TrEMBL record:
Lineage, uppermost ranks: Bacteria, Bacillati, Cyanobacteriota, Cyanophyceae, Leptolyngbyales
Protein location: Cellular thylakoid membrane; Membrane
GO process annotations (BP): photosynthesis
SUPFAM superfamilies: Globin-like
Organism: Leptolyngbya boryana NIES-2135
Residues engaged in binding (2R,3E)-phycocyanobilin: 72, 77, 82
Protein name: Allophycocyanin beta subunit
Length: 169
């Protein structure tokens, strides 16, 4: 797993260049948001169960067919698996937030997911919607906790949504 700093240095090292103004500006931006990233990760950690529960309720309220007979979250076992997966996405989003890098999402979440979901017949639309609902909840809670600029919170959630949405699961 890489973070914003190691990724930047790696890219400059591969090309044999010194850090230029763009690199220095990227590092300044990363460190300027560091405390907010840590606060957001702590907020997610302390409220993970509630975030997942609230997102699940909203998702199933918007898409009740998912929990009806024949739906992908029908039966207690499938419902629990859906919430488990949402928790998984949230946990890895918190890692990516701290790292300011989506590398961990590729390595630990997205690689192999297409094949797994295809084999299980899991549609991508509700998955993407669940991730976006969690993003909205996290951003609202972060703002309520006093994190002024929550725009950095979009990155991991939008990345997973984009990757899952572009790939026909």
């Amino acid at each position: 797993m890489r973070d914003a700093v190691t990724s930047l240095i790696r890219n400059y090292d591969i090309t044999g260049r010194y850090l230029d103004r763009n690199a220095i500006d990227s590092l300044k931006s990363y460190f300027a948001t560091g405390m907010a990233r840590i606060q957001a990760a702590a907020l997610i950690t302390s409220n993970a169960a509630g975030i997942v529960r609230q997102a699940g309720l909203q998702l199933f309220d918007e898409n009740p067919e998912l929990i009806r007979p024949g739906g992908n979250a029908y039966t207690t076992r499938r419902y629990a698996a859906c919430l488990r997966d949402m928790d998984y996405y949230l946990r890895y989003a918190s890692y990516a937030l701290v790292a300011a890098d989506t590398d961990v999402l590729d390595e630990r979440v997205l690689e192999g997911l297409r094949e797994t979901y295809n084999s299980l017949g899991v549609p991508s639309g509700p998955t993407v919607r669940g991730i976006q609902i969690m993003k909205d909840i996290v951003k609202a809670e972060a703002a309520a906790a006093g994190i002024a600029d929550t725009s950095f919170l979009d990155q991991p959630f939008d990345y997973m949504s984009r990757e899952l949405g572009e790939n026909d699961l």
